[in-house]
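Two proteins, back to back. First:
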Amino acid sequence: GANWVDEPVVRDKNLITSRKPSDLPKFNKAIIEALKA
């Protein structure tokens, strides 16, 4: 099963996701940080 989390960005190991289009700036930042690591 899955748990829905009401946050702009959620990271679970290598999976990074967001809720809606207005969250994309925070999502993009999380993706960039993950790629730097």
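And the second protein:
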Amino acid sequence: MAWSISNIYLHNKEKSDCMEKNIKILSAEPASAKPSTPPSRLKITEALKVLLRDKDFNSITTAEISRMAHVNEALIYRYFIDKRGLLHAVLSDYLQEFVANLTFDLKGIHGAINKIQKFVWASIHYYDDDRVFSKIQLLEVRNFPGYFDSETYQMVRKYAGLLMEIIEEGIESGDIRNDIAPSSIRQLILGAIEHCCLPAIIFDHKIDNDAMADNLCEILFHGITRKI
């Protein structure tokens, strides 16, 4: 069959449109996919975690971190700007995992009091289970004013926000008194969790998660007044 000019044009246009469509599809795939974390970045964060097991943050140098990670020291500044940026990135990774797990666990629990008990136990368990996380969160980052303006601190606020939602739920349901400011209740619980855990973290002692959570909740829900 003979091909006319119009047939050739339409045939070529169809091929061109098809190729263009395929190119758009191929080019769109990487944009929609989440970029993977560079292996060297992971090595750096893991190296800092290892070093923090035995040393305080201020005594660790970027040279030590790069040697432990087997990467060029310049990559620390490329990925994290400076050493403290690296510390905040490591803490952010920990907090994202913890908040996600805690949010999921709370979904299956009914009643504000039961949720607070879970919140307390889970927080104590996480502080005890990963001492690098607890050292960063409770000892290393708070002496630097810039931390409270960082994106990492927003994850801490999200964690505290979970507790505030539970407290407000309890006030609305009548399970928690409405004559005390919710923010005061939140600060009391968060402060109690941290101060209960601090001695074990500082002196590297094991924590009895169940006993500590039970004692804290007993004081919180029933007070310290002797029962007659």
